[in-house]
């Protein structure tokens, strides 16, 4: 009975945080679209406070890359898992941003970010089914069955012939323009094609 109560609580918390995940995903998609529509190159982050600005810019790039990879590697219908993973990423960055919890001004923010991270990771364990993914990995390391590598090789050759070029170009252009979302999304799509599975 207690177990059922805990699962119900996870469902309630996930519904509460799902909107935040959608906002984060939309924000990264919109940023990617805006920067890709711009004819001018995105300016380098050179401020008078260059060090602080570069750290923030790098964190935004990595966060965007992770959110993009999540969207590229998860199935379109598996929105609960995608939202939970997105919230885990954003909450992790919130925890890191407020890691100086010994300061009175950071303590409440750190506690809130930590609670959000715990609830988001609970959602990952609840909604993300990785059985097919682990089955794929276990077959890849099964050296006693060499026939599977013929199938894997043919699938990889098919990906290289069909979709490698556009996704590779997307990742290179995203890296050059500082659009982490594009790098992550195209990389996640390629990984799902290579593994022939989505989360």
The helix content is over 70%
Instruction: Tell the overall outline.
Output: globular
Helices and strands, in order, run as HHHHHHHH
The rounded distance between the terminal residues' Cα atoms is 30 Å
Please report the number of helical segments: 8
pLDDT < 50 runs, ≥5 residues: 1-5, 45-54
* Biggest β-sheet strands, sense, barrel: none
Q: Which strand-content bin applies to the residues?
A: under 5%
Task: Report the mean per-residue pLDDT as an integer.
Answer: 75
Integer count of domains: 1
Roughly how many Å is the radius of gyration?
Answer: 20 Å
Structural class: mainly alpha
Oligomerization category of the chains in this entry: single chain
Care to count the β-strands? 0
